[in-house]
C-alpha cells in the first residue's frame, strides 16, 4: 500500500509494528478503498475484522467459543468453520480486553538429494496466544508452542527457524518449543516495551542488515518516540555468548567431577533516527554496539547518548557499527531502497583494500502491479558484505552474533547475493510466491580437523590476526556458489484455517573441490487458530 502511495509514514525499517499502528493504517486504506482492486478490498475487509478492536475500539461481532454471549461459532457445530474472526475466549470493556486463541499445526516434509538422501519428518504443534490491553494504554502479549516430531531430526535442522529451538539438540527429546511475550506501554508520542519477540531491523526484502531472523529471539527493552515525520528508536537486548563448560567438584566428594554449561554475558544496544518525507523518501541512520563479559552497562542503557563516544570512554573494548539507509516514494508503484553498514572504516585509506575497511551494502527495488498485472509485486535485492565484517578482534566474544548465529544478513562476510521475489495475490484466501537466491561465499580454508589454514575473512566468528595479510581479496578462499528456489502457496480454506505447500530446490557448488550438492525439499502444513 505504501509503494502504491495509498498510505505514507509507514516506518518498516524495524518490525513488527504495534497493533495500534496497523489499525491506523487500515483506517487510512479504508478511506481510499475506491483505489483498491477487488482482491485488495477483500484483504482490507479481512484485516479490518482481524484488527477490529484496534480500529474501532469495539469487540461487537467478534465471537468466543467459550461462554459466547450470543449464538455464535461456540453455539453451533459449524461455527468453527465460519468466515468470521474467532477466539477461544474474549472479554472487552472500557478498562480491560483479553483475547485468547488456540494454535494447532500439522506439518509434513520430505527431502531427496545429496545431503540426507531420502528423509522425512512430521510434527504436530500445539500452543496458545493471549493478548490484551489495560486502560487501552498497557498492552500485553504471550505466545507459546510445543511440537512433537517424528522422523529425521537432521531434516528439521535445515529449517532456519526450527533450527533455533534448544530442545531440538537434546538427543533423547522428540519435541521443540518456542515462547515469546512482552508488555508495551503506549503514551502517544512515546511508547516503551519490555519482553521478547522476533525483531527485524533493516529495510531488506530478504535479509536485514542490522537484525535478521538467523539467531534465536532475544529479550530486550525498547522505547520509541514518533512525531509527524520523525521517529526515534532505542533498544537494548540480551544475547547469548559463546558456549563453554565449567568443571567443578563438591565439598562432599572432591574425587567426583561435575560440569555445567556456561555462556558468556553478551548484549546489543542500538539507536535509530528516521526522517520521513511523504511522496519523496525516508532516510535513517542507526548505531549499534555489541559488548559482553560484564553486567549490563549503564552507558548503553542510556537512550539519549552517542554509542561511539560512550564506547571510547569505556576504554574502547566493544564492537560498534553504523548503518545508513534510504527508501524512495516519489514514484507510485516503484520503491528503491539502499543501505550501507560500516563495521570499521579508515577514511584516509577508504579506497584501498585494507582489511580494516569493513563495510557492507544493500540495494533493492520493489514494483507493484508490473506490466499492468494487478495484485502482483516483484522485489529484487542485491547484498554484498566485505571480508571480516561482523567479526571482532579486540574482545573474546565481541562478534556480531548470538550463540554462534550471525545477527545480520545470513550470507555472512566475504559474500554477495542476488534475491528475486514475485508475489501474486489473486484473491483474499490465496497467496502464491516464487523466490530465487543466488549467493557466493568465500570461506576460510580449514583442514580435516577444523584447524584454520588460511583466514580470508569469511567467518564472522574469526577476526583478523596479526599474521593475516593486511589487504583483503573479495571472495578469496574456498568459493561456494549457492542457488535456492522456493515455490510457496498458501490457501485459507476458511477464516483462520490455512493450507500451506512449498517446494525448495537447493544447489551448493564448491568450486575449489569441484563438488556440487543438490537437494529437493517438499512440504505441506495445515494451520489453525481458534
Descriptive account of the structure:
The protein is mostly beta strands and 530 residues long. It folds into 2 domains: 388 residues, Porin (Beta Barrel), CATH 2.40.160; 76 residues, no CATH class. Helices cover 9% and strands 51% of the residues. The protein has an 18-stranded antiparallel barrel. Strands 1-10 form a two-stranded antiparallel ribbon. The protein has a two-stranded parallel ribbon with strand order 2-3. The two termini are 29 Å apart.
Structure, briefly:
The chain has 530 residues and is mainly beta. The chain folds into 2 domains: 388 residues, Porin; 76 residues, no CATH class. The chain contains 6 helices and 27 strands.
Which helices and strands, and how do they pair?
Blueprint: E1 14-15, H1 19-30, H2 38-50, H3 52-56, E2 63-64, E3 86-87, E4 89-92, E5 96-113, E6 117-134, E7 138-151, H4 153-157, E8 175-186, E9 190-196, E10 200-201, E11 219-227, E12 230-250, E13 253-277, E14 281-292, H5 298-301, H6 307-313, E15 319-328, E16 334-344, E17 358-368, E18 376-385, E19 401-402, E20 405-406, E21 415-427, E22 430-443, E23 445-446, E24 452-454, E25 478-494, E26 497-510, E27 515-529
Parallel strand pairs: 2-3
Antiparallel strand pairs: 1-10, 4-5, 5-6, 5-27, 6-7, 7-8, 8-9, 9-11, 11-12, 12-13, 13-14, 14-15, 15-16, 16-17, 17-18, 18-21, 19-20, 21-22, 22-25, 23-24, 25-26, 26-27
